[in-house]
Amino acid sequence: QMMAFTRCETKVMNFTMGWEVQDLLSTFYSTNDNKGIQSAGNTIKGSSETMRENTYDTFMKHYNYLYNPAPRGGHDARKSNKPHATRGVDKYLYKMFIDTKSITNTFFPSPLERHNVFMNDKDWLDWFMGFTEGDGAMLSYNNQCRYVLTQKDTKMLEEMHNKFKFGYMKYYYDNNNNIKYGRYLVSDKKNTFLLYLLFNGNLYLNNRKEQLKRWNKSFNNTQMKTFEGLDMTNIPVIIDRTNKITFNNAWLAGFTDAEGCFSVTMNKHRGMDYVKMVFILDQKNGEDMTNEMSMLLANKNSAKLRKTSNGNMYRIEIYCNDINKDMYKNMLMYFNKYKLKTTKFISFKIWNKMLDIVLGNQPLSSDNMLKMRKLRKNMNKYIMENNPMGYASKS
Question: Which residues form the signal peptide (predicted)?
């Protein structure tokens, strides 16, 4: 019979106790120690329960350790962006009542729960991972890891910078001193390691998983003193699992912000006006993943190969002209729940208004065509502002 204790929020060794066994866990990540003990529901002996599918919880732990420590002595540490190497124990947070038969924990919210910027915003992190898989660059050279995002929409990059509290921004200007595009970069070991923990087990695309493996190799070739200040003795292993794209998280919204497009095509047939409303997604060298998106959105494999100067590009086009089909309903429901964050959010809103005019009304009247042309003109402005910049394998 086993008993589970609340894990303390301090830098001490975790331990597991039972009626017949007592072992030390020398590290949060260790897969060698504690082999005789297994946490409830864990399918791999000796592994941390949070390591079963990804290292998301580990990211949360270390992110808060560096950037959101608990207030001490009346000082709210959130007001400082400087990493903290120590955290005190708030004796008022926990009260434990223990007898020989049962353990009951009565506690107030822990420092992590009170000050975790991502606690109630996991959708933002899912969106960020989808956006990264579409447009980000996870680079490694000579055991140096670097994360790069290049965008014309610098407000989105600034939001990432402000949200994470690490990395830095670079701006590039035209001859008139106007910003052409910006870059969000993370290059130091501790913060690229935090991104490694966030991505590990959460990636969908095979090429991104390969990039993360190179990061893992770089980290393992780094002296552990580089990570001084983090409660760790080794690098978590790569969790290589297959993730299925669903409507149940914000990953697809992030990927759409990076690689998607809401298209409107106008044409005449026998003197009458028709409009095609199309949702487009592109993916380089990823036919299987593109078809998986197509199955989710349209219940069929529709990826088409397009030869480009940057290599093979696969595209899906989801036509949303038929009021009797559910494709557009699923799409609208999803993007209304998981909001786009670049200027494509505005493009989607305009596209949605145009869809209301088109569905069930084709061929369109001259008045409706006039409305459509005005809306498309506004929509094209935001499409131009969100054209992709840079490459996934270059900075």
Answer: none
* Predicted pLDDT at 248: 95
Average pLDDT value over all residues in the chain? 75
**Residue 302 and residue 192 share a domain:** no
For residues 31 and 57, the model is more confident at: 57
Query: Which of 156-170, 199-213, 316-330 is predicted with the least confidence, judged by mean pLDDT?
Result: 316-330
Question: What pTM, to 2 d.p., does this model score?
Answer: 0.74
Q: Do 198 and 263 reside in the same domain of the chain?
A: no
H/E element, 265: strand 260-269
Asked if 64 and 72 touch (Cβ cutoff 8 Å), the reply is no
| Main-chain phi, psi angles of 383, to 5 degrees | -65, -40
Task: Clarify whether residues 262 and 186 are in a common domain.
Answer: no
Could you report the per-residue pLDDT of 255-269, keeping only the tens digit for each?
Answer: 999 999 999 999 999
Specify if 10 maps to a domain: no
**CA pair distance 277, 266, nearest whole angstrom:** 9
The CATH number linked to 138 is 3.10.28.10
Is residue 189 within 8 Å of residue 222, measured between CB atoms?
A: yes
Residue 277 sits in the same domain as residue 370: yes
Report residue 148 as tokens.
């790069």
Which long-range contacts does 229-233 make (Cβ < 8 Å, 24+ apart)?
229/65, 229/66, 229/83, 229/85, 229/190, 230/62, 230/65, 230/66, 230/190, 230/193, 231/11, 231/27, 231/28, 231/61, 231/62, 231/65, 232/27, 232/28, 232/29, 232/62, 233/26, 233/27, 233/29, 233/30
Dist CA 366 CA 272 (whole Å):
9
